[in-house]
# Entry
Amino acid sequence: MGRKKSGIVSIRLNTPTIHGYTLEPAPVNFFYGKNGVGKTSIGRALADPASEITWKDGKPLKVLLFNEEVADHYIRNVNGFPGVYAVSRENAGIQRQIEEKMQQREKMTLDLAAMKEERKRRQEEAEETGRERIRAVWQTTAEFRKKYPETAGEEDPEALMDRLLTCSAHAVSRETMDAAYQLAYGQTCADAERYQPLYAGEFPSCPLMEFPVISRAGTKLAEMYRSAGSFDWAVSGTAHIRDRRCPFCGETLPDGFEERFEECLDTRYHKDMEKLKEFSVRYEEAAAKTRAAIVRNLGNSVPSAAYQAKASQLLDRLESNRLLIQKKLDNPRLEISLGETGTTIRELNEITEELNTRIGRMIRAARDLPEARKRCEKVIWESMAACCEAILNMHRTEQQRAESTLRSLELQIGTQEGRIRLLDRDVAALRAAMTDVSETMERINRSLAENDFTGFRFAKREDNTYAIVRGDRPASGLSEGERKFVAFLYFYHTVLGSLRADAQPEDKVIVVDDPATSTDSEVMGVFSVMIREIAHLCKARFWEGTETGECPDSHIHQLFFLTHNKVFFQMVANDSLSDNDCSLFFEVRKNRENESAVIPCLMRSETAGGDFVNRTPVIGDYQEMWQEYKKTEDPRTLLRVSRGILCRYFLDTCHYSGTDLRRYLLEQNRGAFVPEETNGVESGFTIIAAMVSLMGMNPLEAMDSVYFDLSAVNTDQIRFVFHRIFEVMHQEQHYAYMIRL
# Structure
């Protein structure tokens, strides 16, 4: 009879290590291969809808895959809550979404904190920059505040800056500010006198100043003076003749000298000299009048530095001209130009006009001080603003830039906070959508108790997650082995529970890829029972007599089991070795080209007809040791083989240490190895001591190094002790399985 077909009839494998191989599976399939040969890729391909799969009757079925990757989908730690898990593939998927959103939230929170820190930094920078400019303005306006305390005497630097920022910048002269301040805060000026203007036309002119004045008389004495060039000297000397003596040498002058000298001066000379003397008098009168006016103006109650400077210049000019006129009178022959005074007088008059205008305002201001002080305040503050204009403009620019940056940061912060609120709402909605798997979790808790996993259980939380409870207290988490065990329990109960709980259960294909990794031998035994039950339900579809399946409870159409563990493979698959109708065995291994090959494990039957039957791909020295254990009747051989099996299984497979194993068997369970028929004689203890005393050494070397008298020991005693070890170590299932092989 040919093999049954169900679920996947064929699949073309194109994996990283297997190329173009067509697999034609049975309903139940067992794959064995070392790590790295491509078993995980085969499992993925079976669960991938994109694979080249031919289904029986062209009807695709749901494929449930369990491997290292998807185990995390069944029980996933809730991020940030040790010992709290989202259970079920759907809930784990939702939990992944929650964690992704929480990771986004964490990043957003960090970004938000960075934005707020940047805002704080920018605010501090702007405040420090503002303080620097306030100090600069305070220093720049120090002279104003000192000189005009009634108007610019702000005592608060920040208030000063704030007010200057509202002022227009308009610079005026110091004199204008002084006048405005004096006007507003000086003494009362209702009786102030105005400045007296000067009259430029009062100063006479004389053309003779610029021409030589000389005598044209024809006397011999006149000729002598003219030729000697001493005429003017002689003329000036005659004015000083006293008692007929010469003013130069002191000698007595000859008789008639004065009459003869007078004859040297002609009429024209006398007239010109009279004009010069008259000009000198009139000029001095005008200068005296001008000097008097200037002196009066300089004594005005409203002083002016500009007027004082210009008046000093005019007075110096008048004195200079007086000396020049005198020089001309002393030496009429000289050509002298007087200094110009008209321009200076006009400038003084212009200043006088300005001063008189100001004095007029002062007089009027004396009658309206509030308005005067208002104008004064405006003038001085606008002048201070002009003096600080560069600083104020820079402050405005930087302040606007800082405000713009802070507004942008505030907008970003508000947007980020809004995104965080949206994420929080999404997380709340996802948590509300988590599936209630309480029925399955109750079955898992029962399975834990039934398999002596009493160290922990699961307690439901309000958000449909589950917390681990050890005893009566919350636990911090699961070990890797416990996590794998619980994940497979959930997978197992999902496979079976869905058959019984759903009104219309789904037909399915089950793929189990090495669930026993990172678990101990006890968990491995539990897993093997569960997988054998799944295989049993799959094969039960064909035990009702038809291939269409009349088993009401079986909706498992196909099983694929893959592992690298020889012992686990045998524990799961050997029960199906003789079931040639529904089961197939495969070995996955690499060739010399480092390519993987899937090899069906078939052999010719020795029965009539020579049909192909299954063979196991796992035949090694461990199984051979069990075969020898069952056949040998030699005590020494039996003891050696027993020690070899114990080392291989408990040390290599279950990963016990030799020290722990010896302590557990020789100390804690000493009484378990005394057979009842020995009446208390501890020969069994002597045998176990020989078996485990040097556990971990090479069996042959250990036997050679330990003296043990076998003369009083038979094989039944050795087998009793050997069997008892498995019972004490709770490995009776493995013992029973290997004995049946």
